[in-house]
Fold these 2 entries.
Entry 1:
Amino acid sequence: MEYGKLIEKAIEARKFSYSPYSHFCVGAALLCSDGRVYTGCNIENRAYGPTNCAERTAIFKAVSEGEREFDAIAIVGGEEELVWCYPCGVCRQVMAEFCDGGRFKIICGKSPDEYRVYTLNELLPEMF
């Protein structure tokens, strides 16, 4: 799948964000090795600790459906307009649990045409 198309799916997922505290809406689209795509959004909680990021929502949805092989994830976020949005440390560690660090791509996008691509190893060197 083209990265631009994956970013479009993340943009759609962002619309479902529940972020009444930060007002920072995030969407993610996870590409499985079999071509299936799972989406997620951030879901906040007033206690903050129970808050779940968009990336983990997408990964947990996929894993709960039996998926275990992933190729890429697109991430978009921002309050009103999209800004560069990168996965937090917890999300990076969850990705490390399920993804090949040298092969798995993390696509951070501001639009389907403007994005940056990293491997997990680049964003999480010397992972736990």
Entry 2:
Amino acid sequence: MIRKVIATLLVIGGLTAGNEALAWRGMGDCTQPCPVSAVTQGTPMTVTGTIASIGTPGQGIGIDTGSGITTVYGFGPLPYWQEQNVVRPGIGETVAVEAVETTFSDGTTKLIATSVTVGDATIVLRDAETGRPLWRKPCRMGDCRTQ
């Protein structure tokens, strides 16, 4: 009985999540601008330093710049790094991160990685025009790159 209630709540939650949440994951109604477009409207910057912490997905990576810890988000999933033949850096490794300081609709500001250089290897994480994460597939109803 409890499983049926939980399953029902999950279905209802999924139905009420709205197209905006789905578009963030690369699915949904692309007649609206994709939320990732906020990345293209931010301020570009470079963060260089040593990785001090790696949070769980969504918590970002802390980079010790020598003048403090800067948290950068959007490094993408490990399988994407593996597909690009780049070893994802760990704690203690030196990186140079091209990022965009982005203010989201809820007022929060975050640094979102667009590319990462580790040693001699560079991985590009986002489409330069749209800000769409390169590991995500286009929307089901259309391609967000056209928005």
